[in-house]
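hey so i finally got around to running both of the ones u sent me last week. sorry it took forever, my laptop kept dying halfway thru and i had to restart like 3 times lol. anyway pasting them below in the order u listed, first the sequence line then the structure token line for each. didnt double check formatting much so if smth looks off just lmk and ill redo it

first one:
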Amino acid sequence: MTASWITAGLGVVASLIGWYLTPNAWGYGMFGFGLALIVVGVLDMFREPVRRRY
């Protein structure tokens, strides 16, 4: 669960950096990458935890 929050938080940081660099092509790339990290982090929060079978 903690890794999901870290991933989403890094996505917010990357999106903000991309937002400030937007006129540049790197800005659009960073913004899109940040949004993708946010989506992956949020989807990971809803995932069912894997239980080990012994």
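and the second one:
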Amino acid sequence: MMKTRSIITMLVLVMVIAACGGTAGNDTTTAAGGDTAAETTAATADTTAAAETTAATETTGADGTETTAAPSETTAGVAPEGDPIVLGASLPLTGEFSIAGTKHADGYQFCVDELNAHGGILGRPVELLVEDNRSDTEATVNQTQRFISVEGVDALLGTFSSLLGFPASTVAEQNGMVYPIPSSGALRLYERGYENIFYFQALPAELTGATIVDLVEYYEEQGVIPERPQTAAIVNADDFFAAAISNGLLGGTVEIPDSGEIVDLAPGFLAEMDIEVVFEEVWPIGYTDWLTLANSIRSADADMLAVSTASPDEAIALTQALQTVGYQAPLVYMSQGAQTEFQEALGDAANGIITHSVWSPLANFEGVLAGEPYTNQDFIDGFTESFGTPPDEDEAIPFAVCQGIAQAMEGTGGTDNAAMSQWLHDRTAEDPVRTIMGTYSWDERGLADNRAFLVNQWQEGELEFVYPIGEFEGTTDLLFPKPEW
């Protein structure tokens, strides 16, 4: 299969790079004055919606910070007690990445609520601190340092976006803290020789395109796609993650910071499929001239459109602009679009759009929570009951991250980050971290072993699982060509 050949080729190219040392820059600290907890953004209490929707009650600590108190009686019959284990997460609750960032906060909070309902971690209650980094790198750095040096959190939980995760992981590495990563997939993050980063998704972003072209090849063989696309338009945000996906499709290079090493992705996944790229465009973060971009895409008149965005908001805005100018393509892929907000904002315009993911409600993996089995279906049912709406992957991924950190603490019997890092590195296929997204072990770079992407497609208002075939029950055939807007 092309999938195996492409992924092996890319991974061989990556593996030959010698691991480089971490950045030796000065530690970045925030100004700490007065009541530091009071400086924590009010968005913590406002957006951590699980605290308002579960049976847990909110209390106000001595420092004035609202926290979620554990239920007085847990499902396991033993209430957690003692000093809380504190987890800190700098998340984009406002700004460019706010949709996904807010969902990450909900996923983390629901995990904390579930842990407390099952006895906590090591018998101790768990507390979550969230700060709004406003989708800004400097704020992310300051907040991550503040969690470590001022708040004294026991563990960090990763942020959303490679743009924010790149500097945040450096702060964590410089301070010897484990940094579990939910949503920062650019390859350059993992080629810096860092010892404390662990990615809770599938392949690096540069290899995402392998799954998309494999889908085309499979459905061409099945006759669903009578003829593969001959031309493609590739557009992306000027963002680590978004640019990385396009880079893999186009066959560019990846420069590893502070090492001088280069990863060559040539010829690129589209060239391997003999698909000619007839249009390329990159837009800056904060871009708003979507109609101009949509008109340029329409003029190129490509058979396939690949859109790699930094946020669901961008995917929604560009889709609406494409609908306005009347561009039609038989195959449209977007890197963001699995969120329910995507379909709600677009309605019928979402029909036929494909997007990759690492989580599916159809995949009933059995994870572990507080030492007990906890399935993906348990997560779906509990989250839906608490929030009144089913979860999507931007809530599932952070939940899995939180599961992993909890298991590292339980596995080491404490919160020492050096011990937790070693414990996570020691996981194997036979003895992995077990989450609602499946099992995880990692290579020396912190990339997950033996993971692949899923592909979903919006069909009549439902996000259907269309590739790979045979992984889970309930697979639906690809809808091709994409219906007109």
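quick thing i noticed on the 2nd:
Confidence is low (pLDDT under 50) at residues 1-75.
anyway thats it, ttyl
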